[in-house]
Amino acid sequence: MKEVNSRTKILYRIKENKPNDKTNIDLGQFFIDDNENSVINFCENLVDNDGDYLILDRADNLQEVLLKEINGRSFADLTGNIVDHQSWSFNGLISPKKWSDIKVSIINGIIGVAENGAVWLDDDSMQNIRTLPFIVDHTIFILNVKQIVPTMHHAYEALGKIKTGFGAFIAGPSKTGDIEQNLIIGAHGPMSHLVIIVGSSDSQ
Amino acid sequence: MLTHSQAAKEFNKDESRVDWHDKAIWHLRQNRDLGVNKIPNWQQLRETASEIKLNVLSHLDTYLEEFEKMALSNGVHVHWALDGDEHNKIVKDILEKHSVQKLVKSKSMLTEECNLNPYLEKYSIEIVDTDLGERIIQLAKEKPSHITAPAIHKKKEEIDQLFQKMLGTPPSNGDAQFLVNAARTDLRKKFLNADAAITGVNFAIAESGGFVVCTNEGNADLGVHLAPVHIACMGIEKIIPKLEHLGVFLRLLARSANGQSITSYSSHFFKPRKGQEMHIVIVDNGRSKQLASEDFRNSLKCIRCGACMNTCPIYRRSGGHSYGSTIPGPIGSILSPNIDLKKYSSLPFASTLCGSCTDVCPVKIDIHSQLYKWRQIIMKEHPNRVKQMAMKTNQKVFEHPRLYNIVGIVMRRAIKLLPKSILYNKLNIWGKQRDLPNAPKKSFKEWYNERS
Amino acid sequence: MKVGLFIPCYIDQFYPQVGVATLELLEKLGVNIYYPKNQTCCGQPMANSGFECYSKDTCKLFIKNFREYDYVVTPSGSCAYHVRHHYNIIEQNENVTHLRKNTFELCDFIANVMETLHLDASLHKKVGLHQSCHGLRGLKLGQGSELVSEPHSIAESLLLKVQGLELVSLNRKDECCGFGGTFAITEEAISIKMGKDRLTDHIKNGVEIITATDMSCLMHLEGISKRNNLPIEVKHIAEILNSQC
């Protein structure tokens, strides 16, 4: 007799043991939060997460602002906003082990979530360099004011069917409270986390 | 193994440490309160989370099949393990195939449950826990005492000593910033040189074959994105039907744990990166058995936030290790008896049934009711003889009003007349640190009879 | 309306004054109250210890004693909770279903069945309310601090009707005292520590009298307090609502 594999056994047991479905799931009730205060909420909640924000009415002087933040450190700009200086180049030959040398990363956010200050990134915005926002000391994300939604429910609605191989909500720097709950920023990766919001809130 | 009460008694020998532990953990509960009060429809959110998880339990087999199908089509390898041993062997085989010598692992209560670390160490694979709390207890050769804050039982001065011994750091007088930096430097090397990375899974999405891992440190991501092999280990109950359901769970999880609106990192894995191999190990280990029981199945709704531990007045005053189980606290006390009824038979009694765990639970598990139900089963299967005798006596007395009246009179007389040295004898556990109530001359019933 | 009075076993034996206060209070409020004399216990001590099976006849005796009453009132949230939630182990006949619905904790009965607006009571003391868990979370006699909803507490609102009484707020407003029935014996170390911590919270906030809807919590707290000569008294809420001074 052929030995039944674990997959079959597990699925069989579940089939035998599972209860009848009496559930009723209603997510519609959570789409009530207003959009009006989204930018303010986003900023407040981001600060609660030990992140920081900057609001720029227009994108004209973005490069200048970014260079000031980078402050002469080595950086990787995946947004194309910095043209006057040389960004780190990922030409495949450089081993990821060298990436610890990059100090600042600049990445476009896709969605911002007002209720928790999180920014969604995916393989496209990270140009498939998934390690980047986790290994650098300082992260900068750029977000348009129009990309900010009130809650996580709205965020997943906006994401729709995900096509990416990897995506993440990043809501603040790397942190830990594991030593007597002392909050320490920079447990492994970013020691600072800045979101630059472009566009005035009137344009929402 | 010590029973919970024996271990708790030990822990309580140092009262100032109990106070310190209680305060540290109560702080998490207080932050949780601040966090959840920012969401006006918190109760509806809990209810919805509970409904989603109940829906999962009712369709678990089809969701798992759907998940597997989608994961395979995403280029992910899927494995199934009946128990911890099979899980460990699957992981080892993958590691051997890739000649892995150095492994980094982010926090996974499942691998703790399966005892993966000692197993892999037998095969000379270096396994490094990268969550700072887990790293601390790994260096100290201890077990986690809490599911979201594994080293919460250790004082910073003890961690200082530990790091001096294990990492060669200079003394810092327990400077947390310094100690974190030291761990960061040490672990960065481990991340960069790892041949493979293991993570747990917070949520696995049936419709897309993807899964989500939540951390504050970013250690899961740093490990996974650098290593050529990613193995994600999940219990069968981690499935949720749809991506949109994450909206509910990611709002609940961190808030329930410590009041944060969301963890710093909520990473969604769908496909391996170019050149990387991604594996998912789906583990049963007693969960399908728990599913069969109407009384206990909904403990499988747990999302491992730790809120029930933080609120539990017993956990806070006995420490996580007193439970002797992988998952401590109230939720551990209803999960563990399913794994080994005899071994964990004292856990459902480590509660006053105050019900705070049930009300704090973000997925509405009726924890204290399940504790009550486990008590009934345990006393049937492994009765405590002394307790049984006492309860049989109670039964006789309470069934017969006249006997009850007589016993009452005798007892009150005894309390009144017996010398203290006899009354407060060794067997009187109530009276060790508490006075007995004054014995009145007349019971209420006697007074009432005379009155009318 | 015919109301039966259930006096829990330990109150009957050790705290008859609480039974007296309950009876007098209800009589003052004009309730037709009767005390069936064959009553003993609700069955909870056995059930919570894991011996539900030994409590069935005690439950049946309770039903037999009270089946003819419209309501049962008891100065214990814990016993009322037990009747309501754990009397599912005996056959569910009409009497059982009726009593599971109509057994009330004293404050709950005064506030929600009698809808009493005025109490003729006074006590010039600083009082701390210990929120007994089975009443608070089991019977929902108030909003537990875990929940996000309108704050309310039946016991608190009744205490506020007592003239001269100063209700003291606590650092941890609804943490368990550590009694827990046989828990007090089997987990003695933790039980004592929990009790000490509750007492400390009350004392630090200037409480003179701790009150509660359950005498069992107070018996435990009183036992520790007396042993350590702590400057605090306990009184069941029935005694306070019935007090005149």
Please give a structural write-up.
The complex is a heterotrimer of chains A (204), B (452) and C (245). With 204 residues, chain A is α/β, with parallel strands linked by helices. Chain A has one domain: Rossmann fold. Chain A is built from five helices and eleven strands. Chain A has helices spanning 6-17, 38-48, 62-70, 132-135, 152-159, and strands at 52-56, 75-77, 104-108, 111-113, 118-122, 138-144, 148-149, 166-170, 175-176, 184-185, 192-198. In chain A, the strands form three sheets. A five-stranded parallel β-sheet of chain A has the order 1-11-6-3-2, sandwiched between helices. A four-stranded mixed β-sheet of chain A has the order 7-4-5-8. Chain A is globular and about 65 Å long. With 452 residues, chain B is α/β, with parallel strands linked by helices. In chain B, helix 16 packs parallel to helix 18 (367-381). Chain C contains 13 helices and eight strands. In chain C, 46% of the residues lie in helices and 11% in strands. The interface between A and B is large, with 75 and 91 residues.
How would you describe this structure in keywords?
heterotrimer; A: 204 residues; alpha/beta; Rossmann fold; four-stranded mixed β-sheet; 23% strand; globular; C: 245 residues; four-stranded parallel β-sheet; 13 helices; 8 strands
Number of helices of chain B: 22
Mean pLDDT of chain B: 97
Q: How large a portion of the residues of chain B is in β-strands, by DSSP E?
A: 5-15%
CATH architecture of chain A: 3-Layer(aba) Sandwich
Which helices and strands, and how do they pair?
The complex is a heterotrimer of chains A (204), B (452) and C (245).
Chain A: H1 6-17, H2 38-48, E1 52-56, H3 62-70, E2 75-77, E3 104-108, E4 111-113, E5 118-122, H4 132-135, E6 138-144, E7 148-149, H5 152-159, E8 166-170, E9 175-176, E10 184-185, E11 192-198
Parallel strand pairs in A: 1-11, 2-3, 3-6, 4-7, 6-11
Antiparallel strand pairs in A: 4-5, 5-8, 9-10
Chain B: H1 4-11, H2 15-36, H3 42-58, H4 60-73, E1 77-81, H5 84-97, E2 102-105, H6 109-113, H7 116-122, E3 126-129, H8 132-139, H9 156-167, H10 176-193, E4 196-199, E5 203-205, E6 210-215, H11 219-226, E7 229-235, E8 239-240, H12 246-258, E9 265-269, E10 277-283, H13 287-292, H14 307-311, H15 313-318, H16 329-339, H17 356-360, H18 367-381, H19 385-399, H20 401-417, H21 420-423, H22 444-451
Parallel strand pairs in B: 1-10, 2-3, 2-4, 4-7, 5-8, 7-10
Antiparallel strand pairs in B: 5-6, 6-9
Chain C: E1 3-5, H1 9-14, H2 16-28, E2 33-34, H3 44-48, H4 56-66, E3 71-74, H5 77-86, H6 94-102, E4 103-105, H7 106-113, E5 126-130, H8 133-138, H9 154-159, E6 166-168, H10 183-186, H11 188-204, E7 209-212, H12 215-227, E8 233-236, H13 237-241
Parallel strand pairs in C: 1-2, 1-3, 3-4, 5-6, 5-7, 7-8
Helix pairs in contact in C: 11-12
